[in-house]
Protein 1
Amino acid sequence: MVTFSSNPVSWLLFLTVLGGAPLLSGIVNKFKARMAGRFGASVLQPYFDLVKLARKESVYSRSSGFITRLAPSLVWSTTALALLLLPVGPFFAAISFDGDFILLAYLLGLGRFLQILAALDVASSFEGMGASREARFAVFAEPIFFFTFGSMALVTGRFSLQSIVSGIAWDKPLFPIFMIVSSISIFFLMITECSRMPVDDPNTHLELTMIHEVMILDASGFDLMLYQHAASLKLLLYAFLISSLLNPFGRLNPVAGVTLFAGVLVVLAACLAAIEILMARFRLVLVPQFLLYATVIGVLNILIFTFSR
Amino acid sequence: MTNALSILFCLTLMYLAVTTRLSSYVLILVFEGILVAGVYTVSFFEHFSATHLVIAGAVLLFRTILIPSYMVKIIRDLDMGHRDRTHRYHPGFLLQISGLIMVALLLSYQFSHMTPVLVIPLGTALAGIFSGGLLIVRRRLLLAHVVGFLIIENGLFLLGVGLKAEMPWVIELGAFLDLFVLVFLMGIAMNHLKSHFPEGAGEDLTTLRD
Amino acid sequence: MIGFFILGLIIHVAAMALPAVQRHDGQLNRAVNLLNTVALVLGLIFSVHSLLTFQLWDTRFPLPFVGTIHLACDGITLFFLFTFQLLSVAGSVYAIGYLEHYVKGGVNIRWHLVSFTLLILSLQLILVVQHALVFLTAWELMAVSAYFSIVLEKDKPEVRRGGFWYFVATHASALFLYLFFVVLHDRTGSWDFADIAGQSGWDSGTLALLLVSGFLGFAIKAGFMPFHSWLPNAHPAAPAHISGLLSAINIKVGIYGIMRMFMFFPTGPEIFGWTLLAAALISAIGGVWYALAQHEIKRLLAYHSVENVGIIGLGLAMAWLGRCLGAPSLVALGLAGALLHTLNHAIFKALLFFGAGNVYLETHTGEIDKLGGLAKTLPVTGVGFLIGAVSICGLPPFNGFISEFLIYKSFFQGGNLMGGLVPLVLLVSAVGLAFVGGLAVACFTKLYGIVFLGEKRLKLPEQPGHEAVSSYPVLLGLATLCVWIGFAPGVVLSLVAPAISQISGIPTAQLGGELIAPLGGLTPVFALLLAMTLLILGIKVWTQKRVGVRLLETWGCGYQSVTARMQYTASGFAEELIQLGQPMLGLKLRWKPIAQVLPEPRMFKSHCFDQIEEGLWVRLNRTIGRVLMLLRWIQSGNIRHYVLYIFAALIVYLIIAFVW
């Protein structure tokens, strides 16, 4: 049965999360700047950027059609709806049902589908390149998600994100290792999907470094604001997933739980920043191997868990 | 604890599949030496005796310190560059290595139904043996062949742990002699090859012909 | 109620006779197709009413030579009948517009109309008969009528070749079905389906033979790998309305056959379920990977049919395994997913093929790399094709997602019920399905993006841009169905319920609570998605009215003369993924590198040939040919040798008669 949470806190939290998503991107950028020896922009800089974009005029290409006008809104709303399916900290997910992680993966897939089409709509080879790469890497990224969450569903015996998270038994010896390795798989996935180093450089728009950044090359004004907000929402989504997996909420009171949750988010931001500073981007032909590595880690994880019971 | 260390061993095997830098090969050997010594020590922790200490120490000495430093010396002397240049990118190698690891784990799971064994270390040992063999088959560089052989030896060592059989220390030392002979011969062979073929020594070993 | 259906069948027969009477081709086209539509609507009234009220129909009547013919409509038949009739309505209405084009070109479509009507008629008959010999006769009718429908443009060699592939494949499957039914008759002494279903206690040898021959027969028809090679050759050769119907309903007869096997062997062995699972997974992954490598629209869509048949097979395998375990809820989930996907695939595949037909009418080519920017010249086709593409990738909120969701749920529930290593195998299958989904997204973004979006790539022979207005109702109707089933799956699931309850044994009322209600909960979620999208779109439009919108050339990064040919090509889009599937996909490149400083004109050509087709079937064919050539000497051409053969045969018979 599809349950809509009756607790208004879940829905209010959703609105807070929508508003607070750019903050995580700001924190990552601040960490990056500090590690590189700069002061860096303020943590609230993404907000200023979004407001600036909303006030700008939209320029559309003459070659583009209705897809370019429609895609940004759909990309934004699919990512926002996906956030409603996640349990946030100790609070229940706003929408929860058996198999909702399948809906989550496919909602993100719908957003990706439309973004690729919008990229091909402007009749430019730059966006075509980004679209081709995005489609290619998505083929390898989807199995990671399903493997990780599928194995967690089979291990805990429950099928909705909410009940998986609350069904993790932290006292049994094998569960912590299993969860940590699953989190590593999802971390690799996060790097790919949210266009972070070493898969994609979020700072440049040069054709050699880009996957996600180039698909929105021709977007401007309100559309670009929607794309950027959706990207920060996606980053927050994956960070929430990892944080939920690593948190033993059953045993902690809400205040400690929320603090721990936020702490894990900050640590994740620091890890992302550190990786961006320390590593160069992979050659793009090596990215499928990178993703395959994450999948194989997930496979070994479930195999070892099954065999050592 | 043995399980965790064995899992790390599997991860090094998978890292072997994706890397092409020669320094990574050496680092993998160092790391595997530490892991193997660790697994050995932890699994026989209850009835610990002097023989165990000697063998663990010998493992650390040989596999972690002596052999990798000898390999580093050879790499520097022969000026082999930084990459295994005969390796073209193909994701198939990672798939094959991970397939072998899965098969090895399945096999050891089946074994565990028949005799009491430690499932994960046994599976890791088999995986090491298969992966080392695959490395020898797939790569053309002589150094890669030697690395593959050393990984097979690591796997064989873990096999003893996995089968919960304590082998007499003479056999263990005999295995070390095996290693020593191989690495020594490798050094001789490579120096010999270098003197005959001044350009790229030990590369492209595909045919044995004059 | 049955009267409606019988009246419909009679109208079909009348429509077949019409070409003998009516002389004018254009009016004949409209008349026949309208009659067919009326007949099919009558049939639809019958089947929908029977499904919603669980009214089954059963009759037997004696015929002089064959014995008693048993005709029945049970839950399975009614559901497939509903699917076939619905899609045939769409096909007939589309044919009115599409065949106009041929009529104007002076092609004689009379025989085509007769065979088209006969195809629709035989497809409905095949579902209703429950007598093995009559079933095989109807199969033959279907094969012949489909062949003649395919080869409308019989002057083109590839059309003849495609039709021949279809003919060979259908008769190969018929061969296995003859074996199947003859062995069944031998063991049970009856040709009647009901008697066969009541039989129990098969010995393992017979059971193995029956399962293998039955599965092979229906699998060749449905297009499982590696028997799929006829699909991508036959479906593109046919005109668009026939292609759509072939992919949508013709191959589903194979699925119907496998469901009959469910009925014949209620205590089937578990190994059949696992084999079906493996075959389905291979078909799904292989089908979509081959589709990614194609550069012609209809061939790409045909390979996608292979993939979707694989997905249906996954659901069927889970249902079979559930029955072996005695878990009716698993049976219900698997069957619901498989049958719903049958209907869904029929709808969106027909939508895509009819859209491709419109593209062909406009541009006279199906080569993806020559097209571009068609969403501006063919707006309605563009929208319909987009909805079909989103549905076939299984993306919410359209109907493909609902059926794939049910199949995923069946995997996880199966993993929960079975122990040992089975959950891992099912997890791998679920991940395989996700992989298939990812490849499908790549394939359809390629197809839609390059054909409909961007700018025109090559200058095609100019014809005034016209979109076949007569195709609007079909395209929009099918697209609306996709959207409606996605948002409100409850009604369609209640159509599937009688079939599920027949096989799983769960009463239909309980099915409503277990199966339909949880899916009904998805409707508010999708409605929320729609609401959020419209809200943010509204805010955007309001903001843009205040700050302004401009149209400019696409940003070219400073390049001066950017042409439409500099856009991404289809083979470039899919290149890396094709390389990864390499030994299976058989990529052939033909090009010369640029040798001088100032570039000169060069050609690049890439083609993926079907490795299974080339390596297996064509090679098998050639080997058989070579072996048989050794016996060529028997046909010497000399009449006296033939007379000698006759006498020799006579002498051998006399010897045998006297000795025995």
Protein 2
Amino acid sequence: MKRFLLFLALAAAAGAVAAQSWPSRPLRLVVPYAPGGPIDVSARLLAARLQEPLGQPVVVENRPGAGGNIGVDLIAKGPADGYNLVMSAIATLAINPSLYPSLPYDPLKDLRHVALLVQVPNVLIVANDLPAKNVQELIALARQRPGKLDFGSGSTGSTGHLAGEMFKMMTGTYMVHIPYKGSAPALADMMAGRIDLMFDNLASSLPSIKAGKVRALATTARTRSNFLPELPTLDEAGLKGFDMTTWWGVSVAAKTPQAVVDRLSAEIQKAMDAPDMKERLHGMGSEPPAIRTPEQFTAFVAAELKTYTELVKRSGAKAD
Amino acid sequence: MEGIVHNLGIGFVEVFKLQAVTMAGITMTLPFNIIMCLIGVLLGTLIGVLPGIGPVATIAMLLPVTFSLSPVAALIMLAGIYYGAQYGGSTTAILVNLPGESSSVVTCLDGYQMARQGRAGPALATAALGSFFAGCVSTLIVAMFAPPLAEVALKFGPAEYFSLMVLGLVSAVVLAHGSLIKAIAMVILGLLLGLVGTDVNSGVLRFAFGISELADGIGFVTVAMGMFGICEIIGNLEQKEHREVFTSKVGRLMPSKEDFRRMIGPVMRGTALGSALGILPGGGALLASFGAYTLEKKISKYSHEFGKGAIEGVAAPESANNAGAQTSFIPLLTLGIPSNAVMALMIGAMMIQGIAPGPQVMTERPQLFWGMIASMWVGNLMLVVLNLPLIGMWIKLLTVPYRILFPSILIFMAVGVFSISNQPFDCFLMSLFGLLGYVCVKLGCEPAPLILGFILGPLMEENLRRAMLLSRGDPFVFVSPSKPISLGFLIASAILLVIIALPALRAKREEAFAAEDT
Amino acid sequence: MKIKSPQDFWAGLMFIAFGVFFLVVAQLNYQMGTAVRMGPGYFPTVLGGILAVLGAIVLVGSLTVEGPPVAQLHFRPLIFILISSLAFAYLLKPLGLLLAGMALVFISAYGGHEFKWKEVAILSVVLVIFSVLVFVKALVLPFPICPDFIEVCPIR
């Protein structure tokens, strides 16, 4: 026991020493997706901003593949020295563990979650010619026409898909899921009236909503969105407890020294508080998340993981 | 009409307007937007010429730079990169058989052959001039018809896309000039290879054999570099009567009068086709380029020259793909929907600037909208002015001894492919496809139909299944009278199939008769 | 039975092999679904089948119609070019751009006809420097320049 305590003390001291000199060389921020998506863009924004306070460049490296799993696994299994970061998201941390038959990493054991960057609700949008003006009418319509309504999503296992499944389960309705490659083609089909509804990400659907090409009925988070304040949440509209958002943030390998994690967290929060950064993230539909510390983030991840494991199992969604 | 002139006026004023710019503490008054346009097209050309590195990665990397720019300047620069890359990609397609973009694949067929015959100059000039003409016309089209064209684009649902892809695939067979059956087989092989990866409709991972790098499928760049680039290099090195230089014939720089005469029709038709198909999100520009090629091959009286260096084979696809590149901005600018990965990035850039892309951009921010359109035309002009003189330089490059040239090409290819996911695996795949391409060529099978099948296959399947899902299993949805577009494409495919098969059948019958006679 | 067209014979075999491969893998692993609601195995099975059939047609044709022989295979350029790009890819992370690039140039040059040591050496240095300038400096691609065992790289 005494040996163990001594070891802990030494490890902490080593960690502190490492943190003192950290960072002494460039950092690597792995984005587990192809360049250009919102996660990639926000990563580059963050990397540009972190350079000055950290005194070292943060190099963004794209490692696409397997829905983000490859990139996350790379960091999870990599050196825990504070120089290797990854953009982790709801997909890779909360959904994929139950969606994929086997994941090479454990989102809670192999990773330390440092900071939540963006949290965006989804919006329940319907085609303009659908005879449902609010959530109640939609539910009634769905009950009248079981199996006739189509709901689109950006991919199997995406938040858009799972939100739809949750909706179906809570309302006892049956709608057919139509997966697309990304939400843009799904939106296009909805504008043309080929599919009936979607639970799309706020950022990608906002322009169409504002232009009147589609109609928004509710948002999926627990609290209303400031972008569409007149919209009720699904929770308010009768689906009690409905709370789904799309989110992503920064994580590191589990054994990264605490001091490094704390410093990283502080710097990232400072970067996100900068007005121009806030403005740009705002342009992506994000509002500053309430979660500000690594501990809160980790607790959040654990809660989301539990929710989605349950949801994926009950809905039967699967990716091979 | 006056509305258009007025709007274009706003646009050009915006593009040329002088702004106070502070750099290194010195404040100058510069036409900043024009300068950004120039930087964009220069960068784009460079990217297009470097095999493997495409506009998507470049634009993504430059996004942080755009933060400090005004929205107009940022978008003008990014757009410049995009179509600059088209021009650059055509250059490598002609010079070294490497398609920079998927839509340059078709240019390789005749363009590269022209280069081997010492006609690289006319090929490059044709590409540049055809692209410029197409750019001008399609910019006008975007300016005048953007909203109604966007509505047309919306009419294309999964059934229509599927039928269009079928037509595209049948056209792909036309591309080959050898055995018809082997061409069809190559297309199907390409289709199958394109299915590797995650299936959109079911989420199942197919043909990956546990290799997680294959979860998102095999990239187009990897296959193209392997089958066109590596294969070609090996082929060239094999020549026993080793040509010291790539081609000792360095012909004229400019197209001859005869060339110009032959160019006009293909350029026009290519522009029309490209403008029409470019508005379709997902694959429009590619279909345009080889649709144009197929069309020309079928109607030209020089069709026997196709595949061996017919100038129409460069003029048509080049005009088509540039027209397609311009009109692919339409869904973005009018509906806020991206047609391809680059447009998705532009949306990202717009959102970072606080602009919500969508129909309201036209009315709420006319300077941005029309400034972008005007910059497209200016960018095209810059590219032509840049590229034409460069032709002389490129031709000189071809006279460099091949033993120096090919390692250079190879290292750029390797770097480009590696940078796709910063993993050795893609280079491994590229080598594998190089081997496959090599074997295919030895066996008399052509790589081009395979690559086209590769790109179109997954799209076709995705749309087929989605159409069936939406129609709840009714297979007649594709030919139903309520979907005239879909029906039309399928009829056209059938007709084209017959047209293709007829000469082959006739040839077989003649062979059979000849055999009988002897 | 004489093979009248070796090229077509082997081409036919190749197509049959690919077709059967895809068909079998799809049948063993993925759901077919129905024609109305296709599963992931449907398309590959059908296409694989068609490919195999086409391959068979080509094969049979090769036994009856005269055709060209298989073009001569030259192994030296094939092997060296392929190895050079593999070497580059797998050596890049451990050895850095400088060494991996030079390896690529040397190995690929060896696959050609004329190999003059001094010339290739100069070429490799020029190309590697150019690559560093364009790819790492200008385009900021995350490539390591120096090998892992060198602690601090003089070029950054």
